[in-house]
Write a structure and sequence with these properties.
The protein is about 40% helix and about 20% strand. The chain folds into three domains: about 5-45 and about 90-170, Rossmann fold (3-Layer(aba) Sandwich), CATH 3.40.50.11060; about 265-430, P-loop containing nucleotide triphosphate hydrolases (Rossmann fold, 3-Layer(aba) Sandwich); about 435-490, 2-Layer Sandwich (Alpha-Beta Plaits), CATH 3.30.70.240. It is α/β, with parallel strands linked by helices. Helix 2 runs parallel beside helix 5, helix 5 runs antiparallel to helix 6 (about 185-200) and helix 6 packs antiparallel against helix 7 (about 225-260). A six-stranded mixed beta sheet has the order 9-10-8-11-12-13, with helices on both faces. The protein has 15 helices and 17 strands.
Length: about 500
């Protein structure tokens, strides 16, 4: 028996804002396949996430709900058999995420309906009867577009549009629209366009005879070439053109990367679920002034900035696009040129939202994308951000535990600057490029340029002036030691 829940809400927008925000009605579907054992329900997406993160799907079996206070650290709890229990995105939370996506796309959400049924309807996803109810609700709210928290097949989208008489957009198309809004550089715009074209191509099918063009003149009688075929050829040509331009971008990026790699400076890549605070953390560490916003996918175009570590070594920090549940494969493919920074990074900082109950599930989704990028085996440090949103006592306890040597998870607040020094110190420990050497130097005082370099790039433990020379005990990166090697008296690793 189908269980359904509807929730309608009319929100009034001031007249001056009405033209800027399209009125949207959300449609969610909770269709789960019961396990044979009858214990709980596991969605295919959740199972894929757990497989990617190495967690058994059996760990999602029903159990007592944890209080919000005990869950505030966002970490998975342990089951009786020792396996971690990862909270799963339920239909309500998935619809809430769709709401945030819609608002990021500039829509005003005026209502929503969540339907629970055993399985999706192959023709209309939610069933023709339910669509009639949705059409009436959307009309009463004066909604111009229906947003489905599900990927629709081309035939499903056409069937739904015929019944509701409104534009219908699925989850993938909504994400593509947000990417198109936020892409600023030529590179980002090309990558978004490629993903949109790849999404559009299969949706040209099924228009049939109404798109046919009749030929004129002798020998051209009959249906001739359909507009559908013409459109397909045009899109295919455009896809090839955009792919060629993106390949040029990849070549330029490879050349830039080769120049960077000729200098012993490691790259550290920030990855994580969208809206985990990556750009805010990036700004806190580099003072770059990159746009940081609570809107999803505020960062699309990669940014790389230098960061000084406690050892006075430099690393390059790379901010990347956020990942999301059900991230369209076309986007992963299109943004591969950008995400190559993750593949070539010496260290990956996996940023998570410590205040989210679903941080473990979000981490599992990130694992799926990293696996697709073949970057899942990269050296990694997990950074739990937004500890300022936790209870003070909980936050202090977590930070203290993470301060222990060898801990693989650090807790920070990019907004308040909490734990950033510990994060830089841990990065310093994990980076192997340009190792720090301890040397004894005897540098002539007239070599002011070299002395300034040693002062700026090394840590001086002792200094002594004798007979026009300066004797120094210094800890400095290998790249600096090589530049002053003619004055090295004694070297100790």
């Amino acid at each position: 028996m189908k269980r359904e829940r509807s929730r309608l809400s009319a929100r009034t927008v001031p007249t001056q804002e009405a033209p800027e925000h399209e009125r949207a009605f959300l449609v969610g579907l909770d269709a789960r396949t019961r396990s044979r054992g009858g214990k709980g329900a596991v969605t295919a997406q959740a199972a894929a996430a757990r497989e990617a993160s190495g967690v058994s799907t059996h760990s999602t079996s029903s159990g007592p709900a944890l209080s919000q206070k005990s869950r505030k650290d966002g970490a998975p709890t342990a089951k009786a058999d020792g396996r971690p229990s990862i909270p799963e995105f339920d239909a309500e939370e998935s619809l809430a995420e769709l709401r945030t996506l819609a608002e990021s796309a500039g829509a005003e959400v005026v209502g929503e309906i969540l339907q629970r049924r055993d399985r999706p309807d192959p023709a209309t996803l939610v069933g023709a009867g339910k669509l009639e109810e949705i059409a009436g609700a959307a009309a009463s709210m004066n909604a111009g577009v229906l947003l489905f928290d599900h990927d629709l097949t081309p035939s499903q989208q056409r069937n739904i549009e015929k019944i509701v008489g409104r534009r219908v957009i699925d989850r993938t198309q909504l994400i593509l629209d947000i990417f198109a809004r936020h892409a600023r550089t030529r590179e980002g715009q090309l990558q978004v366009e490629l993903a949109q074209l790849q999404y559009l191509m299969p949706r040209l099918a099924g228009h049939g005879v109404e798109m046919s063009q009749l030929g004129g003149g002798i020998g051209t009688r009959g249906p001739g070439e359909t507009k559908l075929e013409t459109d397909r050829r045009k899109i295919a040509r455009r896809v090839r053109h955009v792919e060629q331009q993106i390949e040029n971008v990849r070549r330029i990026r490879a050349q830039q990367r080769q120049r960077r790699e000729s200098v012993p400076v490691a790259t550290v890549a920030l990855v994580g679920y969208t809206n985990a605070g990556k750009s805010t953390l990036f700004n806190a560490l580099t003072r770059a002034g990159v746009l940081s916003s609570s809107k999803m996918f505020a960062t699309l175009d990669p940014t790389i900035r230098a960061v000084d570590l406690p050892s006075k070594r430099k690393v390059l920090l790379s901010d990347t696009v956020g990942f999301i549940r059900n991230l369209p494969h076309t986007l992963v493919s299109a943004f591969r040129a950008t995400l190559e920074e993750v593949q070539r990074a010496a260290l990956v900082l996996h940023v998570s939202d410590a205040s989210s109950r679903l941080s473990a599930e979000q981490d599992a989704q990130v694992e799926i994308v990293l696996k697709e990028l073949e970057a899942e085996k990269k050296p990694r440090l997990r950074v739990m951000n937004k500890v300022d949103l936790l209870d003070e006592e909980v936050a202090e306890s977590l930070i203290a535990d993470a301060a222990q040597e060898g801990a693989k998870t650090l807790y920070v607040s990019a907004v308040e600057g909490t734990g950033l020094n510990s994060l830089l110190a841990r990065i310093d420990q994990m980076i192997e490029e340009d190792q720090v050497k301890r040397v004894r130097l005897r540098v002539p005082q007239k070599e002011g340029k070299m002395l300034a370099l040693i002062e700026a790039r090394g840590r001086i433990s002792s200094r002594k002036y004798t007979d026009g020379t300066v004797e120094l005990e210094v800890e400095a990166p290998e790249s600096v030691v090589r530049r002053v090697r003619e004055w090295v008296v004694k070297s100790r690793a």
